[in-house]
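Fig. S4 source data, part A: sequence.
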Amino acid sequence: METLTTTELAALLALIAFAATLYSSVGHGGASGYLAAMALFGLAPVFMKPAALAMNIAVAGLVFLRLCRAGYFDARLFWPFALGSIPLAFIGGALTLTGGVYKILVAVALLVAAARLLWTSQEHEVRAAPNFGIALVIGASLGFLSGLTGVGGGIFLSPLLLLLRWANMRITAAVSAAFILVNSIAGLAGHAIVAVAWPAQLPLLMLAALAGALIGSELAVRRLAPVTLRRVLGVVLVIAGAKLLLTA
């Protein structure tokens, strides 16, 4: 991991906690936020993917537990996506990209995530669940992307669930949290086969993420994230994505 001053490390931890709070409040693990934070502080790509996946597992696991206990999880909606995604997330996690290619892919993922946060969705009438085959293909595509980049995939799944009216906002949050959890585990397992370079400060990063998730998961159960804060995080993702593209 790059050498950070005490001030830089404190700022990084604060940004990680902020990202975890906002992402977990909408059922996400926060990987794109963590990747953005690490990119802003110039951390090496070799550390970014495993660190983001590890934080994702911790945060998404906590969020899923809270939302499932609150009765928002729809297993029938979740499993077709998960069955397609898990093996592809494992394969994607095992692939190692060059620094430049990885930065470009992550930058695109961050910009998509920013668009998701900046877009304000409304509650709507839910339609029938998607066809099993369609859900399987979508899950496989998102699983591969999540394993390859280190994002959990929920940032891409949740807009689809909402736009196509397959779930309301809180069911979407619960299904996305579960989707992120299984994909992050599969992606990290695949990456571990190749090699995992753990950043020395990972325990501190994990604690910061979990601290944010404790707040965010409460918001997820009781109310959705404030729109203004979600937009602030969206702007941070745009800046981080632009920086990665410029340095790729």
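Fig. S4 source data, part B ends here. Residues 49 and 150 are 5 Å apart (CA to CA).
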